[in-house]
Amino acid sequence: MPRSVVTGGAGFLPSHLCDRLLAEGHEVVALDNFLTGSSDNIAHLKDNPKFTFIEQDVCQPYELDGDVDFVFHMASPASPVDFTTKAIEIMMVNSEGTHQSLKLALAKSAVFLMASTSEVYGDPLVHPQPEEYWGNVNPIGIRGVYDESKRFSEALIMAYRRFKGVDTKIFRIFNTYGPRMRLDDGRVVPNFIGQALRGDNITVYGTGTQTRSFCYVADLVDGIYRLSQAPKEVSGPINLGNPTERTMLEFAQEIKRLTESESAIVYEELKTADDPKQRRPDNTKAREILGWEPKVSLEDGLRATIEYFKGKV
Ligand code: NAD
Ligand code: UDP
C-alpha cells in the first residue's frame, strides 16, 4: 500500500487530496499547524485506520517513522488577505517548509510534489499563460511574499532534482474553489457566495474587468493525482486550472443568479496592489502529458459550493 505525506492536510485543497489518496488505497499522514486550516476538514477521517494526523509546523525539522512513497507539499496560506496578515509565515512555509519537505522526500526516496501557483506569473503580460512564461512579478509589492516565495520553492525543488536526484513534480494551481473553503478567508468565491446568501452587497473590487478562471476542487485533485503517477521524467511545472474565464463583474452576476439573491452589486477599491488583470491557464501540457482536462462546469461546481456554504452562513 503506498504511503503519502500531505503537508497542510487540514486545509481546503489538501483535505480533498487526502480523501482522493485514501480512495486510491494510500495510507495518508497529514501534517498541519492549523494556521489557516481546520480540524473540521478532516473530522470525517478520524476513525479511518489508514489516516494519521500530526499537528506539526512543517518549517520546523521533523522526522517520520516508516516508508514514505509520496510527499505532497501543500501547506501555505493562499488568500490575498493573508498576504498582509501572515506575510512572514507565507515566506517561511514556502522556503523552510519546502526545504524540510524536500529533505523528507530525499531521506525516504519518495516522489515530491509541490502546490505552486498561477501567481508565479504575477500580473501576466502573456495571455493565456503557458508554463514557459517567466511572469511579471513585483518582488517588493504586497503580493511579493506569496509570489516570490512560491518562485523560490520552484527553484529549490529544481535544485533538489538536478543535484540530489529527487523525483520532483511541480504543479501550478489556478484559482480553485469548492466545499471546505473558509467562508471568511477573503477570496472572491466565499466572499461573493456569503454576501449573496446573506443578502449583503456583493463587493466587486476595482473596475470588475479583471478576469479569473475558476476550477472545481475535484478536477484539480484529479490532476494532482495523475501527476503523481507520471514517470520521473515528468517534472513540470504543469498548469492545473479551468480555462473558463470570467470578469469579476460577470462572476458576481453569475453568483447572484445561482443563489437567487436580491443583493446589490457594488464597487470597492482594490484591496491589494498588483492585482492581476487577467488570468487563464494554457492547459496544453496537462492535456498532452497527463490526459487531464477539467470536467465540472462552472455552474455545477458553483451550485455544489453554494449548497455547502448554505449550511455555514
Ligand atoms: P488552505 O489555507 O485551506 O490550506 C493550507 C493549509 O496549510 C492550512 O491547513 C494551513 O493550516 C496549513 N499550513 C500553513 N502553514 C503551515 C505550516 N508552517 N505547517 C503546517 N501546516 C501549515 O489553502 P488552500 O487554498 O487549500 O491551498 C493549499 C495549497 O494550494 C497552498 O500551497 C496554496 O498556495 C496552493 N494554491 C491554492 C490555490 C487555490 O485556488 N485554492 C491556488 C494556487 C495555489
Ligand atoms: N475580488 C473582488 N471582490 C471580493 C474579493 C475579491 O472583486 O470580495 C477580486 C480580487 O480583487 C481579484 C479577484 O476577485 O481581482 C480574485 O481574488 P481572490 O482573492 O479570490 O484571488 P486572487 O486570484 O487574486 O489570488
Automatic annotation (TrEMBL):
Cofactor: NAD(+)
The enzyme's E.C. designation: 4.2.1.46
Chief location: Golgi
Domain NAD-dependent epimerase/dehydratase: 5-241
Family matches, as Gene3D superfamilies: NAD(P)-binding Rossmann-like Domain
Keyword presence, rRNA-binding: no
Domain of life according to the entry: Bacteria
Any one of the GO BP annotations: UDP-D-xylose biosynthetic process
Protein name from the UniProt record: dTDP-glucose 4,6-dehydratase
Organism in which the protein naturally occurs: Armatimonas rosea
